[in-house]
Amino acid sequence: MESNGTVPSCCLDSTVFRVTVSVILTILILITVAGNVVVCLAVSLNRQLRSLTNCFIVSLAVTDLLLGLLVLPFSAIYQLSFKWSFGQVFCNIYTSLDVMLCTASILNLFMISLDRYCAVTDPLRYPVLVTPVRVAISLVFIWVISITLSFLSIHLGWNSRNGTSRGNDTLKCKVQVNEVYGLVDGLVTFYLPLFIMCITYYRIFKIAREQAKRINHISPWKAATIREHKATVTLAAVMGAFIICWFPYFTAFVYRGLRGDDAINEVIEAIVLWLGYANSALNPILYAALNRDFRTAYQQLFCCRLASHNSRKTSLRLNNSLLSRSQSREARWQEEKPLKLQVWSGTEITVPQGIPDR
Fold first, then answer.
1. In angstroms, rounded to a whole number, what is the distance separating the alpha carbons of residues 105 and 98?
2. What is d(CA 209, CA 212) in angstroms, rounded to the nearest whole number?
3. Nearest-angstrom CA–CA distance, 164 and 185
4. What dihedral do alpha carbons 146, 149, 151, 156 form, nearest 10°?
5. Residue 89 in contact with residue 171, Cβ under 8 Å?
């Protein structure tokens, strides 16, 4: 075969495609890590955000941060190289971390919806309903369920069709799914929380509309309409992102359990998987940036850094100006300072400088 020195179009297209996918996945990972780091910093530096209400948001941010650090880089490498190069043992650890952190992230979203439901529907009893002990029990519940469906199930082979967690193809690394595991994991992790979240956010939406109608009799119509619109957009963004990101993945996940691990095309499987990962990048925006207290904390966090950088420059300028002023004043004072001559008899004679002593 003769070579004319040109690169085949198929290879060029493949290279461009891989570079494009690499850039997209890298940006997604960076957004996930940076966004959740900002949430953790905002809570740690702002005392007003250290409340029971924000415990689930912090737990969500920590979970998504761990997902971005421990899972997504290996998923990106695996996706771009089309093979698993880290061994079977680490494959089990990787898939277990993937399932555990994704499950914990979804259950944190579920707990946030319950927390907001209690705060809106019964604000007077909210301090009684949501206590530190119950919040701690809820967080323990989240991680017990997540660990049970991930590390325990995968390492004991509960998810495998042949009763073992070891795959036949060592170049592939993905969670095996049988009928029982697919249905249980899909029901507990997604479909049941989705059903309850739809009910809770619908109730919250109805209460927001009723409050807007009451405000309509007191305040201008435009203000009430704006408040109702903001509540609708916020709830629609929260539920819309959750459904769009996770519904395709769990639908394919349950279908794999019923039909077999190879029942879904690998390209479609990769797309729905990374679509679910994208929810971890959106959570800092949906559950923190849409919160007024978090927005204020973000502004203070970034403004403080900018102000500290500017204050350093300003302090250097002030120090230099003060130093030059003090030096000029000292020189002037030395020129005008009178000379004091002490006489042994106890009298003091003052002679201005520049006048010769006679």
1. 11
2. 5
3. 18
4. 160
5. no
Contact 325, 339 (CB under 8 A): no
d(Cα 22, Cα 16) in Å, to the nearest integer?
A: 10
Expressed in angstroms, the distance from the first to the final Cα of the chain is 114
Query: Burial, 252: exposed, middle or buried (Cβ in 10 Å; 0-12, 13-18, 19+)?
Result: buried
pLDDT given at position 211: 76
Residue 340 tokens, joined: 């004091």
pLDDT of residue 333: 46
Residue matched to tokens 């300028």: 317
Q: Return the domain boundaries, the chain.
A: 16-289
What is the token pair recorded at 9? 């179009």
Strand pairing partners for 342?
348
CB 53 within 8 A of CB 294: no
Q: Check if the beta carbon of residue 159 is closer than 8 Å to that of residue 175.
A: yes
> CB–CB of 70/97 below 8 Å?
yes
Cα separation of 209 and 22, whole Å? 44
Task: Report the interhelical angle of 55-70 vs 72-81 (nearest 10°).
Answer: 30
What is the pLDDT at residue 182?
94
User: And the tokens for 135?
Assistant: 């919040």
Are 116 and 235 in contact, with CB atoms under 8 Å apart? no
φ, ψ of residue 182 to 5 degrees: the values are -60, -45
Please classify residue 299 by burial: count the beta carbons closer than 10 Å to its beta carbon, then call 0-12 exposed, 13-18 middle and 19+ buried: exposed
Task: Supply φ then ψ for residue 163, to 5 degrees.
Answer: 85, 0
Three-class secondary structure of residue 235 per DSSP? helix
Domain at 16-289: CATH architecture:
Up-down Bundle (1.20)
pLDDT for res 64: 96
pTM confidence score: 0.79
CA contacts within 13 A on the Cβ side of 94: 21
CA angle 10, 13, 17 (to 5 degrees): 140
Averaged pLDDT in 10-residue chunks for the chain of 358 residues: 44 76 95 94 88 90 96 94 89 95 96 91 90 95 96 92 54 89 95 95 86 67 62 81 95 94 89 96 84 83 61 51 54 46 39 43
